[in-house]
Amino acid sequence: MDTQARKRDVDAPVDDTVLTAVEAAMIRIRRRQSRRSLARPVMKGLAEPVDLNTLAVVDAVDEGTSESGSDITVGFVADRLAIDPSRASRIVADAVRSGFVRRAASQEDGRRSCLELTSVGEEAVAAAHHTRQAFYSDVLKDWDPREQQEFARLLTKFVRSLDEAARG
């Protein structure tokens, strides 16, 4: 038995067929996401055109606004998008120039700049939520309601575990 297999057996006793299935599913999800198949329909539904990176910034700012009471900064966006801070700074600047996001003085620290959605950014978020939820509704419509609930619960739990593993 190789060292990697022994380490996995000790650290996380998960059946190999489960690991293989999860890995294959995650690869397919990643491929689909890298094609940005849901972002394009969102963009078509907006009055103003939006770049895919700008949409990612808008989503991150919206996520931060809804989950925390603290300032949403470029660092927060970098963390949420899993990109380096200099790249985050560039795409945030583009989102600001495009009018979807604005910089505001931090209420916690006046020397720091935080990010807020503009009304156009809020429109983009609403369109994104509507488009994605309509897509997922179509995908899940033939599932039993209990399966839908269980899937939502387990997917949320899985994503929390991913976040914890990334921090650890």
Structure write-up:
This protein is globular. A two-stranded antiparallel sheet has the order 1-2. The model has no long low-confidence stretch (mean pLDDT 84). The chain is built from eight helices and two strands; from the N terminus they run H-H-H-H-H-H-E-E-H-H. The longest helix has 23 residues, at 145-167. It is 69% helix and 6% strand. The relative contact order is 0.10. It has helices spanning 3-11, 16-34, 39-44, 52-67, 74-81, 85-97, 119-140, 145-167, and strands at 101-105, 113-117. It is mostly helical and 168 residues long.
Name its key features:
168 residues, mainly alpha, two-stranded antiparallel sheet, 8 helices, 2 strands, 6% strand
Secondary structure elements and their pairing?
Layout (H helix, E strand, L loop, with lengths): L2 H9 L4 H19 L4 H6 L7 H16 L6 H8 L3 H13 L3 E5 L7 E5 L1 H22 L4 H23 L1
Antiparallel strand pairs: 1-2
Helix pairs in contact: 4-5, 4-6, 4-7, 5-6
In spatial order, strands of the major sheet run 1-2
Give the DSSP E fraction (strand runs of 2 or more residues).
5-15%
* Computed structural class: mainly alpha
Count of discrete alpha- or pi-helical segments spanning 4 or more residues: 8
Q: Overall pLDDT, averaged?
A: 84
- Report, as a whole number of angstroms, the end-to-end distance: 26 Å
Any low-confidence stretches, pLDDT <50, length ≥5? none
- Oligomer category: single chain
